[in-house]
Amino acid sequence: MLANKTIVLGITGSIAAYKAADVASKLAQAGARVDVVMTEAAPKFITPLTLRSLTGRPVVTGMWEPGSEFNIEHVALAEAADVVAIVPATADIIARLAAGIADDMLTCTVLATRAPVIVAPAMNVNMFENPVTQDNLAKLKARGFTVVGPARGRLASGKMGLGRLAETGTIISTIRQVLGGSGDLAGRRIVVTAGGTREPIDPVRYIGNRSSGKMGYAVAEAARDRGATVALITAPVSLPEPAGIEVVRVGTAAEMKAAVVKATAQTDALVMVAAVADYQPKRAAKEKIKKEKAQSLNLELIRTPDILAEVKGSFLKVGFAAESEDLVANARRKLEEKQLDIIVANDITDASGGFGADTNKVTLISRDGKVESLPLLTKREVADKILGRVAGLLGDSKAGK
Q: E-assigned strands of 216-307?
């Protein structure tokens, strides 16, 4: 998604400018061409040499730089950009952009570009909450600018409040989302489930599984980056909330089913990645069970809802099958029983992938009988393979209407 994309990274005179170095570094590591444009005040907080070292590209610090590789520089940058991201954006730059002022290289570039523009505010909480700043941000949003952040936390002044620069991961996720606006899932709504449900035994104990949620989150982020509107229904996980995605948090299989039913009332596809518990205690104790009162604990278990089999609709359905034997045969059976369009089967005995790992080795099986065994890939790469199939099927269904 970021490979070979040109990102114009605007940096302004804010104490948060040092964080832009991490953004530049991460973008460059992802294969993007990062052209940094600094305002006059920005080098007082971070040096152009630092940014040039991280990006391997010249850094623009003024309107009239001799020996530049750009011809009529602000126009060249504006035309080359796939996206312009201003990180951090001060109250001053926000005001000048809202007024259409073009008195330095960064504002000229923004005014001249047809690429989408992302603004990541960072400032004192009182400056951010000032009605003038809020009016200026509203003007930018109305013109199609994307505003990411700010976050709430400790500010440079020592105060706590809204005004911290958004985290690097959030900014880069927003860049990915903006770049994917015209992707093969643009205009589609995708519902994704993730994580392992927890079925309570008592207020502190539960029956669960080893799902980390990584695969489901990878699918949700990949769908977002391909232009889809995404709803992520997630059981408890230790993963950061992805930017640009509607997140619905649930605990039990019953809660997940209710959330899926609601979310799929209007959707194009359901990708059921979550590891839903197969059983739940028939009765959950209202108070913590004291171990001193019994040497053993007997639990009567009953089946949980089979969400994929029970949730009905005209949307595309993708399921996952974690198997320890007869991988393809067992996966095919589940595909037929649950009326799926695609099933993703993985061998849980293979230590190279599966629960908790950052990689996975799966086999994709479609209703038309197509079987594709993928090599060991990152979970994000697996997610894109799955969504490529989904996009193809959705495209075919649209063409047939």
A: 229-234, 246-249, 269-272, 279-281, 301-303
4, 209, 298, 360: the catalytic one is: 209
Q: Are 345 and 362 in contact (CB under 8 A)?
A: yes
End-to-end distance of the chain based on CA atoms, in angstroms? 30
Q: What is the pLDDT of residue 163?
A: 86
| Average pLDDT in the chain | 88
| Residue 308: burial class (beta carbons within 10 Å; 0-12, 13-18, 19+) | buried
Q: How far is CA 217 from the centre of its chain?
A: 7
Confirm whether 209 is a catalytic residue: yes
Domains and CATH numbers, the chain: 6-179 (3.40.50.1950), 183-399 (3.40.50.10300)
Out of 107-116, 174-183, 272-281, which region has the weakest mean confidence (pLDDT)? 174-183
More confident residue, 101 or 355: 101
Is residue 253 within 8 Å of residue 276, measured between CB atoms?
A: yes
Q: Contact at 8 Å (CB) between 29 and 21?
A: no
d(CA 141, CA 196): 37
C-alpha 330: how far from its chain's center? 32
Which residues have a Cβ under 8 Å from the Cβ of 184 and sit 6 or more positions away?
Answer: 226, 227, 388, 391, 395
Q: Is the pLDDT of residue 73 over 70?
A: no
Other residues' Cβ atoms within 10 Å of the Cβ of residue 17? 24
Q: For the whole model, what pTM was predicted?
A: 0.84
Distance CA 299, CA 286 (A): 14
